[in-house]
Amino acid sequence: MAALRVLVGVKRVIDYAVKVRVAAGGGGVQTQGVKHSLNPFCEIALEEAVRLRERGAAAEVVAVSVGTRACQETLRTALALGADRAVLVEAGEGAAPGPREAAAALAGLVGRLRPQLVLLGKQAIDDDCNQTGQLLAAMLDWPQGTFASRVELEAGAVRVEREVDGGLERLRLRLPAVLTADLRLNEPRYATLPNIMKAKKKPLEVVAASELWGSPPAPPRLRVLKLEEPPARGGGRRVEDVASLLQELKQSGRI
Ligand code: AMP
Description:
about 260 residues; alpha/beta; 9-stranded mixed β-sheet; binds adenosine monophosphate
């Protein structure tokens, strides 16, 4: 068990505090000059992997991001948060790998690095897909524990607690396995200045996505047709009492 390697998928996304705007033409969102960060659920996945290593249950934590060169910044953050090394799977400028492309690249990397555990976030906050972990488990034919809120490693297996409607579900998965992190799994640490400095010296390898996807890569099956801003909110107004509120709601056809 001491030699267990954990691979953590970390996605670069628009920072959660940024107000996202639709780009001209409606084909996407504005990304130029917009603050990007490590997807919050990936931070939780990474924190769990680092804690497993700190407890001696895992030997190495490798962070991987699939995307453009800009993802190196995300990977440096992951290294500052405790990953031992990082891999950028470079998909070329303008490429926006979706869950299928990300899962295919991760599956290729699993073939090379042979981790016993892959930890991902339950969802990326930009596309809200919640698909990559499930797709990866299917591609590898590995067991999956999604929405994990507690993870415990034991010899050759991992115990996972998941929050489901009306209670908790407990699973025991044989390793190797894919897990996705839920919000309550842990509270990620902050990167300290000394760790940010140390992260600059940790290894960051670049692999071309085409090497992992195979050539030619399968064309994406998903196309965003149009994005629209939600309608602007009309201002609020006070009414005298409940009776007038009900009357107004009836008059406006809302009830
Ligand atoms: P999604 O299926 O897009 O909601 O993403 C779920 C999780 O899959 C994320 O939290 C990441 O851990 C992983 N993931 C998705 N896309 C990428 C990517 N481009 N690079 C690295 N990890 C990714």
